[in-house]
Specification:
Layout: E1 3-4, E2 10-17, E3 22-37, E4 42-58, H1 59-63, E5 73-92, E6 101-105, E7 117-131, E8 137-147, E9 163-170
Antiparallel strand pairs: 1-3, 2-3, 3-4, 4-5, 5-6, 5-7, 7-8, 8-9
């Protein structure tokens, strides 16, 4: 299995509250995902654009049984779906072939097209937000993306779909 590596990116989100407990959120994520299989001396590096539409449930307001109180801290859970567009390369981690490509998607190598691979995904998330004022929150979120594809790591094996986790801090 892959040993996870961290990469940085950015995301933007806009949430419209429908009720105190339920909101609709649009999100755009731009970043990289990477991982390695040390036993095979291989790693992948993926360049990602991801777009999602999510239902966000404010747990504190949901459990407050209709009490209309504005809390400084809120706890949320989200569920949604989206589209990810990526290009990815599988490379040798070490040895005489270090950093040479083994397989790729989106780079026009190995007989594939030179365009990003587009796949759908389901997403689940959780977060904590601190209310700064009526329009802005400071938040920490964690999202799990389950792709409808086995191509993100450039290795197709046994039909097991790929996934990735995104953690974010933002205003």
């Amino acid at each position: 299995s892959y040993q996870n590596e961290r990469r940085f990116g950015f995301h933007g989100e806009v949430t419209k509250q429908i009720s105190p407990a339920l909101g609709i959120q649009g999100m755009v994520l731009r970043g990289n995902a990477t991982g390695s299989i040390r036993t095979k001396s291989q790693y992948y590096d993926a360049d990602i654009w991801d777009y999602s539409l999510n239902a966000v449930i404010n747990l504190r307001n949901l459990l407050s049984l209709g009490v209309q109180k504005k809390y400084k801290f809120s706890y949320s859970f989200s569920l949604g779906a989206g589209l990810v567009q990526f290009k990815t390369k599988l490379k040798y981690l070490g040895g005489p072939l270090k950093n040479q490509s083994i397989n790729s998607y989106g780079y026009g190598e190995f007989g594939g097209p030179k365009k990003r691979t587009a796949e759908s995904f389901l997403t689940f998330g959780a977060g904590v937000k601190y209310c700064i004022n009526k329009n802005f929150d400071l938040g920490v979120d964690l999202y799990y993306r389950s792709l409808n594809s086995d191509k993100l790591d450039a290795v197709i094996q046994d039909g097991n779909n790929d996934s990735y986790i995104f953690g974010g801090v933002g205003i």
